[in-house]
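Tutorial handout. Part one gives the primary structure; part two gives the three-dimensional structure as tokens.
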Amino acid sequence: MNQVRLIIFDVDGVLTDGGVYYGPNGEEQKRFHIADGLGFRLAQLAGIQTAVISGRDSEAVRVRMQGLGVNNIMQGIGPKRSAVELLKSKYDLKDFEVAFVGDDLNDLPAFEAAGVRIAVANAAALVKERAHYITNARGGQGAAREAIEAILSAQGRLDTTIDAYIRNVGGSG
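Part two.
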């Protein structure tokens, strides 16, 4: 984790609780945890690239990730491994410089392409078995923030990044 320069997140079950909600007009809605958003800000302050890869295409994901300044929003992706390979090529990264955070069996091919494999607490058993790190938080409950902080901590940059964040926002949240 100490050389990660790109963190890629699955969406449903990692950044959300995995539930699919529909509004009165059939529009899909998702619930995101605010702590994860701050985690994305910490990663950005530390100079770590972030990306999301989802098999589904959702306007809610697009709006939330754009609001967080995530430049790599890949939705409607079939094989996630090819998306991971594309991102590695885009940033000229080696496997050990890439972390993938997942929760379900369709994330396993992406795991194989990443050097650091992170599973959320409520991930499928096989995903947990193949993970290097398992969060204490469940998907949609701050697991992304925990993964980011674990990486920054392994790099010895968590405290300085938090200090920089506090200076940038003037201590407000």
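Part three, for discussion. The first helix runs from residue 34 to 45. The two ends are 27 Å apart (CA to CA).
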